[in-house]
Design a protein that fits this description.
The structure is a single chain. By secondary structure, this protein is mostly helical. It has 2 domains: 96 residues, Cytochrome C biogenesis protein (Helicase, Ruva Protein, domain 3); 30 residues. Helix content is 56%, strand content 0%. Helix 2 packs across helix 3 and helix 3 crosses helix 4.
């Protein structure tokens, strides 16, 4: 019965890079592992989750997720372990491994930097255009009599 459920689970899910030897026997744990893997970034393939990546590091991360789930960790504990690690045992990969990083704390500065730079650029551009509009119009320089005579000589030749 478990094998039938696992086969059905694999048939209804999209194609992933998960190898058959990585799949857990318990379909519920496997489903949890897939959900967690969708939110973790492959460190080699930019903006691709570890479930879809064929990179070796992605395989290692998928195995680590399944190992932590078999150890009884909750989904949040698994993600915290991969991001922050355990001091002295495993350093973790940092928040870069998350496809959707947190918007609080020090990341708030990064989230706000883009819109802030846009506002600054619009202000600088608007100020430049305003100063340019107020600047006196440049008058055309007229030629002196000596320059007019010299130009006439040049044109005659």
């Amino acid at each position: 019965m478990k094998r039938l459920a696992l086969i059905l689970l694999l048939l209804v899910t999209p194609a992933y890079a998960v190898q058959p030897d990585e799949v857990l026997d318990d379909p519920l744990l496997e489903l949890r592992a897939r959900e967690i893997s969708k939110n973790l970034r492959c460190l080699v393939c930019r903006n691709e989750n570890i479930d879809e990546s064929n990179a070796d590091i992605a395989r290692d991360l998928r195995l680590l997720v399944r190992e932590r789930l078999l150890a009884g960790d909750s989904d949040t504990d698994v993600i915290d372990y991969i991001v922050y690690g355990i001091p002295g045992e495993f350093a973790g990969y940092g928040e870069y491994v998350l496809l959707r990083p947190a918007t609080g704390g020090s990341n708030l500065l990064l989230w706000a930097a883009g819109p802030a730079m846009l506002i600054v650029a619009l202000g600088v551009g608007g100020g430049y255009l305003r100063r340019r509009a107020k600047a006196p119009a440049q008058t055309e320089a007229t030629l002196t009599e000596a320059e007019k005579e010299r130009l006439a000589e040049i044109l005659k030749d």
